[in-house]
Please model this.
Amino acid sequence: MADYKNHHIEMWTKEHVHAWLCETVQINPEYADIFIKEEVSGADLVCYEKQDLLEMGLQHGPAVRVMKRLTEHLSRPESTQSRKEETQPKQINKETSNENEAVSCKTEMPSPRHQTQRAEKANEGPKKTEQNIADLILQHHGEEKGLKITNCILKKIPRNDLVQSFTKKVGKTDQELPSDSTDSAKVKKETDHGEKLKNLLTCGASTLGHYSYFILVMNKADPKQLEHLQFLSKTDLFCVLDFDPNSNTDGACKLYREFCHANLHCPVHFQGEPSAVVKNLNLYHQTSWVFCNGRLDLDSRHLDYQTWLKETHREIEQMVSFMFKPEVLPSRRCLVIFLLLSPVESEKDPIFDTFMTFHRQSGGEENIIHICNNEHTFEKWQSLIQKKYEFDIKKKSIYELDWSQVNGQIVKLGPHSQPFERLLPSTGCSSVILKKKDEQRMNTLDILCENECEGAYDENSPGFHNLKLMVEEEFYRGGEVKWLNFYISEKQKAKPFIKRHKYEEVRTKITSQIKMAKSTCVLVNLFHHPGCGGTTLAKHVMWDLRKDLRCAVLKDSSADEQVASQVMDLMKYGKSDESFQTPALLLVDDSKDTEAAEKLRNCIRRQFDKNCLVKKEKSFSSPVIILNCVRTHLPKVQYKYCETDSQYITAELTKREQDDFEEKLQELKENHNRPENFYSFMIMKSNFDKKYVKNIVSNILKDLDMQTKQAKLLSIVALLNSYIPESHISQSVCEDFLGMKPLLWGKETVLERMEPYSNLLIESRGACACLEELDLTYNIKRSDITMDLLHCDLFFRTGLGKDALILFIQRMLIERQRNVENERDTQFSLLIEKIHTDEGQQKVQEIFMKASTRYETMASIPQALARYLYLYDRDFSQAIIWQKIPDRLDSYIELAKKATNAFQRAQKLAKTENEPYEDCHVTKDTYNKSADMGVIEIALIIFDIISKLPFFKVKDPKWQLQSFLKGSISMTKTSFEFFERYFIYLKSRKFEEESGHRFRRKVSEHFKKYISFFTIEDELAQNLSTRFLQESIDIEDRKMFLEEQKADTFAGLLQHLEDRSGETMEKITECYAFLIEHSKSRHPKIITNLILANLILHLLNPKSKRILQERDLIHLLRQAMLEIRAQHPFPELYYLALLLLWPSSSTTEIDENIVIYIKAIRSSSRHQLPNSLRRRGAISHIFLGKKPGLERLVPKAKLYYTNDPKESNRLWQSGDIFAQKDIKDRLLRVHGIVEQGEVYIEYGKLKIPVHPAFIDAVRTGFSTEKVTFYLGFAMTGPLAYDIQYEN
Model:
């Protein structure tokens, strides 16, 4: 290697330049070879600028590094000159040589830090003015020049005595201070470690982005270190494992939450089914801050090592194991950072055990780095690791930088946009700053700011030019449009973004709704063909309105209440309660219908009413507009029949649009290679010509080898995109399917591996044509591809990006299409109907049977199979031909049994899970009513067929049906009884009323048909009459009185809490006492009603002489509880247990069975009305007050009086009722905790679970926080009202 160090840079040869680049700059040798090829000498190099390096072929990162090192080298002329002098032969002794070396290495201007050090050293001697002056000269010019200058000055004064003192001082300084060569070495080490830190975090890139996820493991920081941890809030952290138990009160966690949102978790929170954990903890969307060594603001116990090892170590192992499941975090895109803020002195330290866990679970040290701020901490940590493992962590460690340097380097690597504030439009053309942590809390919304993309990039850099080309290419190849596409089209000297011909109509509909608002939330539907640019049009309108409206795209459509609450937060953000709100535009993409958006609209309207933060007329002037993009194959038809404001766009271009596309193609040709291969763009340009698409696909697939992984993936993606246009398969799943391995300094993309078929992966029309070509040319049928998909285990692993894929596959198999003209659906999904038509029934059954093994816990697949069996396989229309029925009756009944069993299974599954059902266009209830309806319909079909058999004319049909109907009648009656409870006990919400009435009529018609087959036996009616006549007249009179007063049921008794006096309740209580006394056996229902009647009487008239005392009521309750234990199927007795046994504010003893009773009341209420209660909620008739005894129970009816029922209803629905002073005075505010999304009251060591009365009262993300609230008692258990977070 050429010895460039002994020559001035301008004397370097090209070999010297090459050596310097490889040794000092440490760039890739391939880049260094370019300098040899271009014959770049040292004299040439000093003339170079960064643009020259880029034009030579260097990438942006290496070019910046070369220029930085070159600048550093050129800034040290003295050093260069001294090296030249050192090369001259000198006849001096060893001591003199060493002294000269030390002097020659001095720089002309030392750093401020070195100046301070020298000044301190100088002040240690006699404080003489002359010596201070000498020291200043020495510091400024260095020893060699300083000595000459000072000697000259002192001799001219003349002061020879100071000349001697100065010379003596120079010698002392040389001995006491580290030589400048040491300082230079330290600077070099810091420089090297700064570059090393950048490379470790970016894998050689210039900014963060190589790693998708960062996991930070840290121990306790002292207060001085906290000011240098701002980089935590500048980095997208997946999670933080914090071993400081005080972090939330005075540590890193508190600092982080001042700027960013983080959910506070414990390791145990990561246990469970991966997709559920990800959803509950809001992983990937919000940072999870995990307390791994206790949390002292919740638990006063401090964990020593042995206790930690016993109680927490196993939980951390399970948590880390969860993180490194392939479906959760792809290890090659995840970097684990151990941030050692304090020394780890022993292997008996929890953070060291955690390192060993990460090393074991992640498969080695490859993706783990270590950062500390001094060599001592590092060496101790290094020695601990080397005792356990053979590898050395030095290459993966940073320890020569102080925390301020670490902080500065990482912040510098972050996005260029970080110094810029994100802005939201406000009233009067003003703006408000949107804080990062507030934006993170609104996690269901992707917020579009008015200054979106501004300042996010260095727009003059070559990197931005490359990014522009890449973003354009992705979009015109068929990718989803990004905000950057619109930004680029505005800023660059190019043709503006193409406006579709319906652009102005859609924009006008939105702006007119703001000017003439008639409601707090309005819906505008945009119906469009899949792949015709409907979403792009909607986003284009939103982009152009971003400075007038607060805009957001809906990210999560599964939680209407949460979305509505966050939309309200977006509108109110940065405003006082009295000020005008800025209108909001919410984009709902990829809808299949209008009903889901209508549901959301109604939910937002209720949220407006609940908040009531502004007067009614003001709220109307600031509405929320929902722009609902609906994919449909019949956009014109749906537009025609849609009752709300709508517009449509089809796969057909106007003449002007075709001209715009032609102009755009010419522009693309100037900047892109072969834009003719941007098939999505070219298909639109051809006006969606089917022949053009077919020719493209045919040419691309002409040499396809169906045995390759690429061909199989292509066929699967084509199938999904054809039937679910918005579907996608995550990059990591594609990589695993193709067997792609990560590369050290880069990676091959999926699209590159899939060439030349990659263009077909993201275009729905290309996908449809691809399926046709596979069928015609290669005889690959849709059923073949579907079975390949269902047989591949990889596609059914839950986790990041995979849950969505499982849902896409399910929808492809079961989602039916609505014909808007006749309001009928296809019998099955379009895929199933196509396979049924082209390939026959056997293929369909095979697909459903295989799918049922993939979706074992979901009701929809067996439900679809059951429908297919009785609609197609049995051919009932032909079966009613008289003579043929008896011969095949057994097979039809057997088939009906199978279908009924499938529906019965669906009924059971519906009680335990939430999922989309077959009728995907219908607004879903949590309970699957379709399963009960299926049982009824199958029974009626069979009854109808058998009743038409000829021999039924002479024989009693009931006896002929006995063998089949023995079990069927019971299930059918159970389904009818469920619908009776469903319609009578639950209130339909406003937006469900119309569909609810239709469904109820349908059930009523089925019931009439059912009873036409079966009637009540005369003998049974006679027995009933006889039994009633034998009853005691007194007992019968009292029962009639209770029925007249609606006091014969538990629910009816609760209504008497609204009575102003206790007179009626006294009679009711007397009736129940009489019935108990004269009954031969005590029925639990009578005992339950007796206790409630006495309790209500006590609350209405505590001085009544007929009332049973509290101790007597508790005695009766305990006797009844002993008889039923905790398995009673009805919730009423458990409700009484909560009222009578709940501790008051002065209670010292607590019945620990309270938790058991809460579990029992929740279970029994779910048993009576499965899961539907979650949608409609439950009413608390009694609240917990401040007084002792039964007086602690406060009826809701006595809490607030008003002559305006609407006002009262509004206050209760919004929760504003709890702001009333008299209610605050009467009710007890209890202290509790939110943990894993659940609310608990803590009485000593007992944690009592409580449901929130309003779902959106508890923040998402399962963060563990302290709260206070009021307590109400409902038939589903205790409810928490007006939840307030202490933090």
Observations:
- The chain is about 55% helix and 10% strand.
- The mean pLDDT is 77.
